[in-house]
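dude i think i finally got it to work??
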Amino acid sequence: MHTVYVDADACPVRDEALRVAARHGAAVLLVTNGGLRPVDGPRARVVYVDDGPDAADRWIAERAGPGDIVVTADIPLAARALEAGAQVLRHDGTGLDAGNIGTTLAMRDLMSDLRAADPLRQGGGAKPFSRADRARFAQALDTALHRARHHARRPDDPN
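look at this
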């Protein structure tokens, strides 16, 4: 059975992930350092990991694999999950895959270097998360779960 791993700290689409996964009968693990209330659902639970940098990311990366879906904004975690064979979705529904993860990692590193070179520069911050973003994520997760189910039925398929 497929598992949806949600990097739950500061994740704006937890409710959408729970709702879509429940429709598919998929398990959902909301992985966090703390601060989340328990969830209500037979196939959903909150996993509390040790406090510390990247503890939730490491926990997910050690467990996610083929047939699973990882929901995260963390690009290094996304790269590790893809390497393990999982599908990856960002909060806005954008999928990350072997064809775009390298460019995405490079852009992340470039932006980090630019911020470090000019610490006084004020960024505009992230744009507000909209209802359309939530709908796009829900549709993308629904599609990813259908894809995972389809591939699970075809063990001879190398993809």
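The chain is about 45% helix and 15% strand.
im so relieved honestly
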